[in-house]
Amino acid sequence: MARLPRICLPGIPHHVIQRGNNRQVCFASEEDFSAYAHWLEEYAQKCGVAIHAWVFMTNHVHLMTTPSTEEGISKMMQMLGRHYVRYFNYTYRRSGTLWEGRFKSCVVDAEDYLLVCQRYIELNPVRAGMVNAPEEYAWSSYQTNGLGKAIKLWTPHPIYQKLGKTQPERLDAYRELFRGHINPAIINQIRQATHTGMALGNDRFREEIEKLTGRRVTPEKRGPKPKQKDGEEFLL
Description:
By secondary structure, the protein is α+β, with helices and mostly antiparallel strands. The chain is about 40% helix and about 10% strand.
């Protein structure tokens, strides 16, 4: 089956995941994380992509982005991926692929899902048991979204800026979001939408995206299989 063309809509947030091939390690040292972050910042600027949230895990990366062009995210990830693979292979005297095919992504309803998706991203190290709290993990945007650390890579989304009139108010409000747990059903929604390229949002948002793109962005509902009558065979 042919792959559906990737949806990339300017001005709308996108959740992006890039995984190591066969979930192999992509970052083996602090220098590797730093190199990836440096080139991500460089190519995000070149391609006109705003980066609102991120987490760099040992074998995969999550990003919350907003592109300014339809090709922005794809160009950024291609340039970043190629540059980082050359660096990684040279550093560790290896050859061959590093990433698991093409990256996965989905459009995100900013009003209802942007902040919860950012929480999902920044809580990855906690769910993985690597740290007890998001502020303990250095390679996450929680360092700036929640703690106020100045990081050039970061561009705050307008939804984040609405959390308060001043930076201290925004930081307090953002940290407050992390006091509760994310509903497991929401986590499943985020994972399913990103894996399948569907839209992450309410029915109205998905309808708007389908009108804009002419593509189905809502998972098909699985109904019960028709009952087979005696002597009847189904052609599959």
